[in-house]
Specification:
alpha+beta; Protein Transport Mog1p, Chain A; 2 domains; two-stranded antiparallel sheet; globular
């Protein structure tokens, strides 16, 4: 049996062939190509129609690809895959809370698209892996000035403090939230994980990246100097922040090429 899983834009598909002997790989890819052709001819989703009507190209083409993520991640970066529990999808204004709709609808928010990734690793491999989850999204606005207003309204990750000096990404002032938060593991125990979210604007688009670490070891957690009361960032948070900036710059580059 040979199975091939693949994606076309926001559609996930699989082709499985069962033979009495090992099938030819070309047979599997041939059937997959026919499925992709049908997917390309499928109806245009409403959000894509909204983008086209507003003069925007398909936002899905700007998001970081698996090869980009693998190239930027030195630790088993080739393992990054789409999350099947939180599939890629459009984020029209209509699915947002009432308060959020009232805030961004007057700004000409067209729609957005988001993706969740994770890195499947064994317990032994987790000992050296950062990060293990990643969220990314791009949202289009009708005007760059309104996109900036939309960026200013974003709340980031509520349980994290806003970074006083976020990295300069894209156009104007970017925003960032980073820190360590408590989480409950599968066995019920508590652990700390590191998160870093960077939101930024390129032209009339607002984008976000947010990598998440595995549970941190005690020697990776940030510490408070009892003498000066200053917080010294742990190695876990430093690695996650570096990865967030790396991915944010890659995504900004993708958007910059669309906004020369």
């Amino acid at each position: 049996m040979t199975r091939l899983d693949f994606r076309y834009l926001d559609g996930l598909a699989s082709v499985t062939l069962t033979y009495p002997v090992a099938p030819d790989a070309q047979d599997v890819t041939g059937y997959a190509s026919r499925v992709v052709d049908k997917m390309k001819k499928a109806s245009t989703p409403p959000d894509l129609k909204s983008l086209q009507a507003a003069g925007f190209p398909d936002l899905r083409r700007y998001l970081l690809t698996q090869p980009q993520m693998a190239q930027a991640d030195p630790y088993l970066g080739n393992r990054w895959v789409w999350s099947t529990s939180q599939l890629p999808g459009w984020t029209p204004t209509s699915i947002m809370s009432q308060a959020a709709q009232q805030a961004v609808a007057p700004l000409g928010r067209v729609t957005g698209y988001q993706m969740f990734f994770y890195k499947p690793l064994s317990q032994d491999e987790l000992n050296g892996a950062m990060p293990v989850a990643l969220f990314q999204q791009v949202t289009a606005y009708t005007q760059a000035a309104n996109a900036q207003k939309g960026l200013d309204l974003m709340e980031g990750t509520p349980q994290l403090p806003a970074a006083p000096k976020p990295p300069q990404i894209g156009d104007g002032q970017s925003r960032a939230w980073n820190g360590e938060v408590s989480t409950t593991l599968g066995d019920g125990t508590k652990a700390l994980i590191a998160l870093d979210e960077i939101d930024f604007r390129v032209g009339d688009c607002v984008a976000s990246v947010k990598p998440q670490s595995r549970p941190l070891n005690a020697n990776e957690i940030s510490q408070v100097d009892k003498t000066t009361n200053q917080v010294h960032a742990g190695t876990g948070l430093l690695q996650i922040s570096q990865m967030a900036e790396t991915y944010a710059k890659l995504l900004a580059d993708d958007l910059q090429r669309a906004h020369p």
